[in-house]
Design goal:
This protein is α+β, with helices and mostly antiparallel strands. A three-stranded antiparallel β-sheet has the order 1-2-3. Strand 2 and strand 3 form a beta hairpin. The protein is elongated and about 85 Å long.
Amino acid sequence: MTWSCDAVAVIMADAENAKALSGLLNGIAQSRYYGNLEITEELLKTELYSELPLQEFKALHDKMQGIIKSIASADMDLNQIEAFLTAQTKKQGGITAEQSVVIAKFWKNHKKKIRESLINQTRWENQLKNLKWRVDVKSQSKHSDQVNSAAAIVEMEIGTKDKQSEFLCLELNEAKLNEMLKKLNEVEESLAALTQIS
């Protein structure tokens, strides 16, 4: 099978377009979701689309950024993204089938990391980083009635990604543990009732 020069040129152009679009999508992810402030629109234009007029590049950049935002905010799975991208290819002023393939591949590779980034961006309070628990039996105590009684020891690591963690250690006897479990059940029932209402 022999290829004409025109066919080879078309294949090469398609490969270059896919590579540039992949770079653009990665650049948008870097600047918008991964916090890399060195990646700017100007840099992406210069490195990937130097031949494209500024207005056309801006339109392409904004379109791709909007598509990634829609996909990320909906946390689309592979079936949802396929349906979404198919709809985008049929929409006037939408995307091409080739762009659809590149976007789907990009999302498959970046979904988990972008989702984690979005979750971390919405946290402003401390979070529970680690929890360990065990049951100990007291062998010594100031009060003889507490010897050989069981105690639950709960160790929690609390903090944010940027700060040093704090550690909290709780010792609960059987009565306190039962009281805590009762309160947790009440919270669970309240949350279940709220989710059924909405």
